[in-house]
Amino acid sequence: MAPVTVRWGVIGPGRIATKVVGDLPLVPGAELAAVASRTSIERAEAFAAVHGGARAYGSYQEIVADPDVDVLYIATPHPQHRAAALAGIAAGKALLVEKAFTVSAEAAREIVAAANEAGVFVMEAMWTRFQPAIVRMRELIADGAIGEVTAVQADLGIAAPTDPADRYYNPALGGGALFDVGVYPISFAQMVLGVPDTVAATGRLAPSGIDLEESVLFGYADGRSAVLHASIRAARPGQARVFGTGGWIDVPPRFHHPSRIVLHRAGAEPETIEVPATGGGYFHELVEVTEAVAAGRTESAVMPLADTLAVQELMDEIARQIGLVVQEGPAQL
């Protein structure tokens, strides 16, 4: 039997799509088939020219209707994910949806319900979970290398452009810290510790209404905790640390795509474990989707939809506590 070729389409040929698709030629059995921009077909054509001459469309509806596209990578601003995802699912396409999956748990639940009903593969593009160093960290934790896990610390911050017209400050485009950088420490903590029993958050809003930064404390009934920070006001180290009863694991900056981890076992010298990523680091999530679609699977075991929904629920609660009012996009293209 001939190998299956999984044909990819890109919705939203922007900066992040350029980085992600740059790793696609490294993925066995994957090819870029089409790209769509709703602002201009010229933008789609320019993207296609750089990435091997895929078909270019000047609307999202056209790429969704293309019968020769198996997977849609949705790389639009967060509030626009909902409409593109629902349209793709209705057309029977598998989806890789850029993080944050949506800007509301309600929209995330709607997408997941539609995917389950249609029986199509959908995954959030949380590349951190597929980084080889993070995979190794999880293996060490599962093997008891640091004993019982008790706490997580993680921070991520950038000095974003302060222009009020920039997307970081535009609430209609899902601007702010929570959905761009805060999702990383939140998802990291949920991955290691599970869903917390309590959430306490404080933050600062900009005049436009977007969140500039937040500090978050997750509490668990058994005494475990997570302390998390996110900011677009200033750069932060971008480090994570997982504590256990028998040591700890450092994930050096930047923790959301690390090339190494440092294992500290009680009474032993620190052990640096180098585990570099392939390509730009997006290769690993692209392999996950390509192999799953070729095999007919409808969900990733590494980034399951239940975890995506849990993180969206947590972000809803954080937004509520800091007074952030989100602007969810439409349900139709």
What does this structure look like?
With 333 residues, the protein is of the alpha/beta class. The chain folds into 2 domains: 6-128 and 281-301, Rossmann fold; 132-276, Dihydrodipicolinate Reductase, domain 2 (2-Layer Sandwich). Helices cover 32% and strands 25% of the residues. The chain is built from 9 helices and 14 strands. The strands form 2 sheets. It has an 8-stranded mixed sheet with strand order 8-9-10-7-11-12-13-14, covered by helices on one side. A 6-stranded parallel sheet has the order 3-2-1-4-5-6, sandwiched between helices. A hairpin with a 2-residue loop joins strand 11 (240-244) and strand 12. The model has no long low-confidence stretch (mean pLDDT 96).
Shape, please? globular
Task: Tell me the CATH topology of the largest domain.
Answer: Dihydrodipicolinate Reductase, domain 2
Q: How many structural domains does the protein architecture include?
A: 2
Major sheet details: 8 strands, mixed
- Tally the helices: 9
Domain GFO/IDH/MocA-like oxidoreductase: 135-249
Keywords: Oxidoreductase
Domain Gfo/Idh/MocA-like oxidoreductase N-terminal: 6-124
InterPro entries: Gfo/Idh/MocA-like_OxRdtase_N, Gfo/Idh/MocA_domain, GFO_IDH_MocA-like_dom, NAD(P)-bd_dom_sf
